[in-house]
Amino acid sequence: MRAVLTPGSLDEVFDLLERHPDAMPVAGGTDLLVRLRSQAGQDDRPLIPLADVKELHGISKDGTTLAIGAVTSFSRIIADPLIAEHAPLLAKAARTIGGPAIRNMATIGGNIRTASPAGDSLTPLYLLEAMIEIASQRGKRLLPIGEFIIGPGQTALCGGEIITRILLQPGGCFPCHCFEKTGRRRSMAIAVTSFAGMARLSGEGVIEEARFAWGSVAPTVLRIPALEKELAGSRLDDGTIRHAAQIVRESVTPISDIRATADYRRSIAGNLLARFLEGLRG
Amino acid sequence: MNDMTQPAIRKKSVHFTLNGSALNIETRADRRVIDLLREDLGLTGSKEGCGTGECGACTILVNGEAKLACLMLAVQLDGTRVETVEGLAQTPDGPLLQQAFVEEGAVQCGFCIPGMEMAATALLRDNDNPSRDAIREGLSGNLCRCTGYVKIVDAVERAARDIRCCREEQ
């Protein structure tokens, strides 16, 4: 039988983690409890549910920084006016996660900690250059999401640490944005490939600045800074779009698994960018 | 806060409201809510389909929000208000929803229906005049292996109409 330790405050979480270094914090549980059940009997490490820790909930704006508590559910994120105003791309991606009950349970911090290459909230967080606030009894540190997530299921978290907040600086103005997910079906499906894009165009149909991120095509979410740089200042003609899609197909390193082949993912990754860029032309 | 040194850590006392009645039970700390409901409390209306959060057959309402009983620990119910399909007939709109499922012939094998009705209840409390698209979205986490989705959506649409009518009459 597994012990469940129930902290009521962040200090209690840190204290429990110090005394039980093998304990596992649980946010929404939608990934973790499935995994633990599949390993039933082999693992009886204690659980620390975080749902009752008030400091880890909620969305607030302090100056220019938007802060999202780690155990804020995707339903709250979708319904939040601050997110709608400052990070609509994140709300767009959140709407595609699971179904309503999963979105009531699953949390943004949990999605980041799970560090799946297919995590639906991750591509927008990479584009918004999210900073992950990590804390333990020893103090706090901040890491860009791209440094926090190291590989599939692997993060920079050390013993005794949890994700406490996700910090966004929604400074840049990107009027055009999109999130797309291809999967076996629209709900509940793990993404075969996902794509998030943000762009700002000049009046003459020239890209001023654009950012793109892909999920499920590499061990972690992929951005291609060289492509973003190259496209800045480009006019969106057919040749540019074809060339950009080709660079994507050469840059991604997908695997074949039960959901799709690597070739399919490679081709979709290019097509999703091409579709976004074509949409920008109007 | 509990500590491993206390033997109580593996057994927890959980206090919650289940379909309107206050309950105080001792349970294994790592008991899943679906097992607590079905095996310990004998409420077998909530079904376990996949056990991995993909089918929605175990959908219950916790503080009014749809949640999956197969992915929750019993201790997480402490201090909450829980509704399961067994209590639906006693809610103001439950009988109209259930009658609409009957009238529309929405039930085939029936395994998914408790989850469908709980998801529909959450949807209709939030939006009493949902479009068919909104209904499909509201039920998007619930699988029907008989694939009787059209009639299930018809039933929820009819329930919404009946509930609105009933309110206007009052």
Outline the structure in words.
The complex is a heterodimer of chains A (282) and B (170). Chain A is α+β, with helices and mostly antiparallel strands and 282 residues long. Chain A has two domains: 10-33 and 58-168, Uridine Diphospho-n-acetylenolpyruvylglucosamine Reductase, domain 3 (2-Layer Sandwich); 176-281, CO dehydrogenase flavoprotein, C-terminal domain (Enolase-like, domain 1), CATH 3.30.390. Helix content of chain A is 35%, strand content 23%. Chain A has helices spanning 10-19, 32-38, 74-79, 81-86, 88-94, 100-105, 108-114, 122-127, 145-148, 225-231, 238-251, 262-281, and strands at 24-26, 47-49, 59-62, 65-69, 131-136, 139-144, 149-151, 154-155, 162-168, 176-182, 193-201, 207-215. In chain A, the strands form four sheets. A five-stranded antiparallel β-sheet of chain A has the order 3-4-9-5-6. In chain A, strands 10-11-12 form a three-stranded antiparallel β-sheet. A two-stranded parallel sheet of chain A has the order 1-2. Chain A is globular. The termini of chain A are far apart. The relative contact order of chain A is 0.11. The model of chain A has no long low-confidence stretch (mean pLDDT 94). Chain B is α+β, with helices and mostly antiparallel strands. Chain B folds into two domains: 7-87, Ubiquitin-like (UB roll) (Roll); 90-169, DNA polymerase, domain 1 (Orthogonal Bundle), CATH 1.10.150. A five-stranded mixed β-sheet of chain B has the order 2-1-5-3-4, with helices on one face. In chain B, a hairpin with a 2-residue loop joins strand 1 and strand 2. In chain B, helix 2 crosses helix 5 (149-169). Chain B is globular, with a radius of gyration of 17 Å. Chain B starts with 10 loop residues before the first strand and ends with a helix. Chains A and B meet through helix 1, helix 2 and helix 6 of A and strand 4 and helix 3 of B.
